[in-house]
From TrEMBL:
Pfam families from the UniProt entry: Radical_SAM
Similarity-based family: Belongs to the anaerobic coproporphyrinogen-III oxidase family. HemW subfamily.
Descriptive protein name: Unannotated protein
NCBIfam families found in the cross-reference section: hemN_rel
Keyword terms: Chaperone, Heme, Iron, Iron-sulfur, Metal-binding, S-adenosyl-L-methionine
GO cellular component: cytoplasm
Domain Radical SAM core positions: 1-236
């Protein structure tokens, strides 16, 4: 089995917190615009596809950037090429990340017809002052409209992404966002703590003192609130930052967390095949040039040692509801967890160690203790 991630590295505007490998029209050195870029970019992606293994494909995920800026026909070319070359499982999950402002009923119908069956909308918050700090461009009122249009277009699996801990966001703001997100009737919610990345506009604003840093204690309360609220609505946590109705977990993301094989298509995209991890050149122009010259876009790679694989298993499985299999731990590692178990940070089941809700707030520290 081989999953595919397809990176669409274009946005209308860069969000203040974003350090992803994305580009706005003003940042593109070759002067390209989003209106004309999709054709030759997709041509390059299809050339990279020829370097990938031909295993059957259980999931495809189009992320970015803003994939929903690219016309359905062009994204459909990638799906069709993967289907023709590798073959898709009967229940292949094909996800599109979308900005609520960038879709119309016609566009969503086009994406569904092109083969997409799952969509994830960047909602982030329903508070306009929070969205302003994040430099998000969408109107919060458009999220419900986008979700309703996606349902009407035929999408059976709909997710929204939220961000908590934005400077100036109160617990009341967050509770309102979570309530409204759950009232959309979506099948899946991702909620990520805001991380201030060096080099971003938001980091510069905090450094200058224009806005305050995120409050860790408040963020902990926000996490516990969404965990409880989702549970009341029948969305169970299955990964540290993700909740879903039964059967609507993101199978593509589970492939990452379980260290399955995947190939990342696009500039800066990372791949993992067996014991090897590798990544592409970052800039779209360099990426396209290499492929149009008949060269691989891979910038560098690394072989994963047995020790690296064991450590990654612990780091990744600790995030999951299934937990860390006891058989994967040494006696010393298990014994180091005794205090965390007594403190109700870890649930000690017959086969695994599973983080409790409070334990998830301290996941990094617990993993560090395990790997010490």
């Amino acid at each position: 089995m081989l999953s595919f991630y397809v990176h669409i590295p274009y946005c209308i505007k860069r969000c203040g917190y974003c350090d992803f490998n994305t580009y706005t029209p003003s940042e593109l050195q070759d002067g390209a615009t989003l209106e004309i870029v999709s054709g030759d970019y997709i041509d390059a992606v299809l050339k990279e596809l020829e370097f990938a293994p031909t295993d059957v494909v259980p999931t495809i995920f189009f992320g970015g950037g803003t994939p929903s800026l690219i016309p359905p026909h062009d994204l459909g070319r990638v799906i069709n090429a993967i289907k023709a070359r590798n073959g898709l499982t009967e229940d292949c999950e094909i996800t599109l990340e979308a900005n609520p402002d960038s879709v119309t009923a016609e566009k969503l119908e086009g994406y569904f017809a092109a083969g997409f069956n799952r969509i994830s909308f960047g909602m982030q918050s329903t508070s306009t002052h929070v969205l302003k700090v994040l430099d998000r461009t969408h109107d919060p009122e458009n999220v419900k409209r986008a979700v309703d249009m996606a349902r009407a277009a035929g999408f059976q699996s709909i997710s929204v992404d939220l961000i908590y801990g934005t400077p100036g966001e109160s617990l009341k703001d967050w509770q309102s966002t979570v309530t409204q997100a759950l009232n959309l009737g979506v099948d899946h919610i991702s909620a990520y703590a805001l991380i201030i990345e060096d080099g971003t506009k938001l980091a510069a604003q905090i450094k200058r003192g224009d806005i305050a840093s995120p409050d860790d204690d408040l963020m902990a309360d926000m996490y516990l609130y969404i965990d409880q609220a989702c549970g009341f609505k029948g969305l169970k946590w299955y990964e540290l930052s993700n909740w879903a109705k039964p059967g609507f977990e993101s199978r593509h993301n589970m492939a990452y967390w379980k260290s399955a094989n995947w190939w990342g298509l696009g500039p800066g995209a990372h791949s993992h095949i067996d014991r090897k991890r590798f990544w592409n050149v970052k800039h779209p122009t360099a990426y396209k040039q290499r492929l149009f010259d008949g060269l691989s876009p891979i910038a560098d790679s690394e072989e994963l040692s047995d020790e690296m694989r064991r450590s990654e298993y612990i780091m990744l499985s600790s995030r999951l509801r299934t937990g860390i299999a006891k058989r994967a731990l040494t006696i010393a590692q298990y014994e180091r967890m005794a205090d965390h178990i007594k403190a109700d940070l870890i649930l000690d089941t017959a086969d695994a160690l599973v983080l409790t809700a409070t334990g998830r707030l301290m996941a990094d520290r617990i993993v560090a203790d395990l790997l010490a």
